[in-house]
Amino acid sequence: MPGTNYPRAFRLFFGHDANVSVASYEFTPSKKCVTTTATATITGFERADFYNNGFNSGDTIYAIAYGETIVSSSYFDPVSNITIFPNLNESAPANVATVILP
Questions:
Q1: Is residue 1 part of a domain?
Q2: Sign of the alpha-carbon torsion through 32, 97, 60, 35
Q3: Is 17 domain-assigned?
Q4: Rounded to two decimals, what is the model's pTM?
Q5: Residue 93: Cβ-neighbour burial (10 angstroms; 0-12, 13-18, 19+)
Q6: Where are the extended beta strands (E) located within 5-74?
């Protein structure tokens, strides 16, 4: 693992079920998260971020994180109707976490 002076990036994906993944999600923020430690506290999301992306008050939101390169890359695939993130480390995602949207 790189030293603490080296930034690490990751991208979050949110969905309505526990099988949320890079291939099956309903919302991913437009920017990735960057930290210089092995753990991070993720803040800065507004409820409206979720309300505007198909979630409602009382919904259980499932989240998963994937490591990503510092320089992000993505493109929209019109066949699958999702955004593709080719720089993600899909072989080692984080565990799925849940939260109930107020």
A1: no
A2: negative
A3: yes
A4: 0.83
A5: middle
A6: 8-15, 33-35, 60-68
Per-residue DSSP letter, 31: S
The answer to whether the CB of 61 falls within 8 A of the CB of 55 is yes
pLDDT bucket at 75, cuts 50 / 70 / 90? very high
Chain CA centroid to CA 15, Å: 10
Between CA 13 and CA 65 the distance in angstroms is: 6
pLDDT digits (tens, 9 = 90+) for 33-69: 777 766 666 777 889 999 999 999 999 999 998 988 8
Residues comprising the chain, all counted: 102
Q: Which domain holds residue 93?
A: 8-100
